[in-house]
C-alpha cells in the first residue's frame, strides 16, 4: 500500500504538521513495508528548515522528519513554495529534496491513500 501525506501548514503555531508527522511515524510502525511519501507545500516547506531549536519537552519537527526518512519515507518540498518564501537556496533537512507539482501529481496517481493536513 502507498500513502501520500500532503502538508500545508507551518511546523509550529498549529499542530497540523505535528499530527501529520505523528501519523506518518505510526504508519511506518504498523505497516513497515508500505510506501510513504510526504509532500510539503505552502508554509509547510518551513518544516524542512534545519537547526530547529525547540524548548525541552516540546516536539521538534526536524527530528520527526529525520526519523521518518531513516525509516524509508520520501519527503519533498515544493520548489515554487520555497522560492515564494525566499528559501530556495537554503539547505534543507538532510534527505528532504526540493520538488515540483509534477512530482506531487505523480505521487497522487500512484497513491492508494491520500491524506492532507
Q: Find the CATH topology.
A: Hypothetical Protein Ychn, Chain: A
Give the termini separation: 20 Å
What is the level-2 CATH architecture name? Answer: 3-Layer(aba) Sandwich
Bin the strand percentage: 15-25%
The total of beta strands comes to 5
Treating each run of at least 4 consecutive H or I residues as one helix, how many helices? Answer: 4
When the domains are counted, the total is: 1
User: Which CATH class?
Assistant: Alpha Beta
Strand order of the largest sheet: 4-3-2-1-5
Helix content: 25-40%
Q: How would a crystallographer describe the biggest sheet?
A: 5 strands, parallel
Broad shape: globular
Taking all residues together, what is the mean pLDDT?
97
Quaternary arrangement of the chains shown? Answer: single chain
Strand-and-helix sequence, N→C? EHEHEHEHE
Helix/strand/pairing class, anyone? alpha/beta
Sequence stretches where pLDDT stays below 50 over 5 or more residues:
none
Write the topology of this structure:
Layout lengths: L1 E6 L8 H15 L4 E6 L20 H10 L3 E5 H6 L11 E4 L1 H10 L2 E4 L1
Parallel strand pairs: 1-2, 1-5, 2-3, 3-4
Helix pairs in contact: 1-2
Amino acid at each position: 500500500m502507498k500513502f501520500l501525506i500532503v502538508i500545508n501548514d507551518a511546523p509550529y503555531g498549529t499542530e497540523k504538521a505535528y499530527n501529520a508527522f505523528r501519523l506518518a511515524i505510526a504508519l511506518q510502525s504498523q505497516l513497515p513495508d508500505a510506501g510513504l511519501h510526504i509532500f510539503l507545500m505552502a508554509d509547510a516547506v518551513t518544516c524542512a528548515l534545519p537547526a530547529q531549536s525547540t524548548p525541552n519537552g516540546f516536539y521538534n519537527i526536524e527530528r520527526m522528519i529525520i526519523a521518518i526518512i531513516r525509516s524509508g519515507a520520501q519527503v519533498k518540498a515544493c520548489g515554487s513554495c520555497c522560492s515564494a518564501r525566499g528559501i530556495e537556496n537554503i539547505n534543507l533537512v538532510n534527505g528532504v529534496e526540493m520538488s515540483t507539482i509534477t512530482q506531487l501529481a505523480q505521487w497522487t496517481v500512484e497513491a492508494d491513500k491520500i491524506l492532507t493536513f
